[in-house]
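Dear Dr. K.,

Following up on our conversation at the group meeting, I've run the structure prediction for Type I restriction endonuclease subunit R from Parolsenella catena. I'm pasting the input sequence below exactly as I used it, so you can double-check it against your construct before we proceed with anything downstream. Let me know if the numbering doesn't match what you have in your notebook.
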Amino acid sequence: MLQADSLLDILNRYEHVEEKQETFIDADGQEQVKTVRHIIFPRYHQLDVVRKITRDVCAKGPGHSYLVQHSAGSGKSNSIAWCAYQLSTMFDESNKPMFDSVVIVTDRTVLDRQLQETISGLDHQQGQITVIDDKCTSKDLRDALNDGAKLIVSTLQKYSMIYEEVHSIGKRFCVIVDEAHSSQTGSHAIHLKQALADTEEALKEFADYEEQWEDASDYERDGMLRQMAAQGRHDNITFLAFTATPKKQTLELFGEEMPDGSYVPFHVYSMRQAIEEGFILDPLANYVAYEEAVRLAKSIPDDPDVPSSPTLKLLRKYTELHPYAIGQKARVIVEAYREITSRKIGGRGKMMVVTGSRLAAVRYQHAIKSYIESQGYGGIEVLVAFSGALQDLADGAEGPEYTEPGMNIGHDGQHVKESQTKKEFHNWGAILVVAEKYQTGFDEPLLHTLVIDKRLRDVKAVQTICRIDRTCRGKTDTLVIDFANTRDNILKAFQPYYTETDLAEPIDTDRIYGLLREIHGYHVYTAEDADAVASLEFGKDRKNVQGRIKSLLTPCAKRYNELSEEDRYQFRRKVRSFIKWYGYVTQIVRMFDRDMHKDYVLLSYLSHLLTADKINVDAIDDKVQMDYYKLNETYRGAIELADEKGKLEQNDKRAQSKLNKRKDPLSELVAKINEEYAGDFTDDDRVVVDALYRRLSQNERVRESLTHDGETVFTDSTFPKIFGDEAMDAYMGSQDAFASIFQDREKYEAIMRAIAEMLIRQAHRGWDEDDDSDSDDE
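The predicted structure tokens came back this morning:
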């Protein structure tokens, strides 16, 4: 790295001075701004990835994809900037520019600024970078592409407005995708490819399918064929995809295919390596998990029949949002902040509380501030972050409307603008309560403690928890307090991304054909409907196309509404799945299947008309009451990850999701929530049952058996062995908590039978309903 030729290359094309404006609070408590300058020098993995990519592109030319799996703390922004700059100045063997434009796709304003600063430090030509920010329109992006701007930075969404107006014939593009695990299979990503693809080359492949299109109409051969020609991979587009957490789709879209059919990243800088080299902290080194012991009671004399599944969800929501439950957790939060967080990083440590909904965020901020006031604690500023406005029905019909700026009072006693929340939190804030905000792309090195009261899984869990791994002077550790997940669930989420992530096998493309046959079986629309929609979508008359298509689909929506409740539920699921998988598969291969493409166009429009059934369930608050609530700490310590490659598997075999529309008496559903089973069942036993159920519901052997073996074999043969193994593992992890179930054989059998019944019911409803961690209901 420091040999003469290498060092000269680094000084010429990498090293630059970075200037940052930093705010700080002076001795008089006044906010001051200072300019900080740093000399930026590439770390080994940054130099290595830039050189390997540029060498490979130089040798192979355009048209290939490169997946870069670099951990948080790897300096992805600088790596992207160096790649972009060097690729934009690269020439081919004919001494022509390798790329007409290098396009960076990002949603991070931080990267926009850093790219400009890095490039300007390397190249003093004015106008080297064209940034299409919020002040620019989609037409500015179109003009930059058509005029051959060397470096273009824009969001993905802007391509949907101009993809038909870009002149891409004969041009070559390099697309660098920041945070490539998100939004690379949706309509915006498809429009980006349609904008940049040289479809003249792709249409040469059409000769193999010519016979199937002999009877094609003008609109099919013109608009629709050109749109389909943009599918698959293109020799004029090179993709560089940067992410710390590649999903299965990301690996297959951008990864390198191995001889055994698996897909691997082109370059890896792992989380393990970043931790070992001290560029990030281990976010799982200090992890504390809590579980809730709850007892509800029916508070009305009647026992009405109510829909089972939605009422169980309402009861869970009632428990999660109950003022007493939130109050108890608020006490834990504030005391943890005072005893631990506030003493970290030289007294500057900060805490974030991640909630499951906007209403939860509102109630949490109220509860935390109320507890601080009741204890006479001072100097703890509590901020909240969520989008939009909402009301809390507990305040009554005339209650106030809550917004982020309306709830946030800054250090100066004034309301904090939404755009200033981050700055206020950095300078003065102590605790920030969030709902679907700042879980990704939030870089606050002073953030020491993360409190979680939301179910998380897979990439979402990794992204959220890694908010606390940033380093700064004086920061030596982190803390996670988790009210909603188990140690095993978090371990399962992180393990694939600890070292290198591979995809074991590509997706089976036949899946979408089978799915489409199932959709046709509901007879909601006909082939004539699909033809009519496609003729409007791809026809020359563009006036009010969406409105005319919506009118065409009105009879289809009527046929959908005439289906049974169960069929409507299944049809919606299958339509969403087909749209997702068709968009994914056609990013990889060109299919030239015009009938399927017509189905895709129709279903993309129809999906917006398929409203979910509104379940008429009265508010639950005045029908039940909470008799008992206790928080129990179930784990404290580090979550140790194995030093092995992460392997993602395609998971097509799943228990069929069913809508459980059975009506049960309210008392019976309350009893299910309370888990009142045979024997001398104490409140501690309830905690045990809940912990075992959570473990077993995530057990792959349980899911596999329920999918393939049937309920009888599962209950009588498979499950007793699985239950015994999990119960023993739980006992070895916490002997005091789990000892009672081994001391009473009758209790052991009762708990095992009850959990088996709960798992069977969950399999009928669909595992995703129980695992859904992405909902943000009020």
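Two things stood out to me. The radius of gyration is 28 Å. Residues 4-198+234-269 form a domain with the Rossmann fold fold (CATH 3.40.50.300).

Best regards,
J.T.
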